[in-house]
Amino acid sequence: MSRLIFVNLPVKNLAKSMEFFRRLGYRFNPKFTDETAACMVVSETIYAMLLTHDKFRQFIPGGICDASKDSEVLVCLNCDNRTEVDEMIGKAVAAGGTTWKPPQDFGFMYGHSFRDLDGHIWDVHLDGPYIRQSVTPFHSSSPGSLLKPGLPEESRVNRGSKVARPDFTSYMQPTT
Fold this sequence. Notes:
The protein has 176 residues and is of the alpha+beta class. Helices cover 22% and strands 28% of the residues. Strands 5, 6, 7, 8 and 9 form a 5-stranded mixed β-sheet that branches. Strands 1-4-3-2 form a 4-stranded mixed β-sheet.
């Protein structure tokens, strides 16, 4: 079964946020867009619901995080090539966003990040073949492993496996 993901993000000015993301090349589903919410289509299975603060408060028990001061979420998007990563960051900055981290090149993965108008962090990256083969759905023919049918044995990710994998330590370290 294919699943959909809806990332709900509070925005201070819905019209400005929609224009920002349009300039990055995204479109909106009019069936789920009104003056309080906009359904941004990221892909066939991924959507970002941009919600006014009043609308967002209807779904949460506490307050809304000020994403320009504190981080509430990292939204990570995969691109097909390095040029697409750099173009997305360029469009975000041209539309009023800011870069968050400098570009990071790990050989097997390249990424760059931006903050949108409300301070939400968007990490845009290109991952190498190892990543695509290793990050697979949580199903397998054997318990305790993550194996996408049809991938070679070395693509299996077992709990406790001795398979050599790239070191993500520096990539996953928080910034100061």
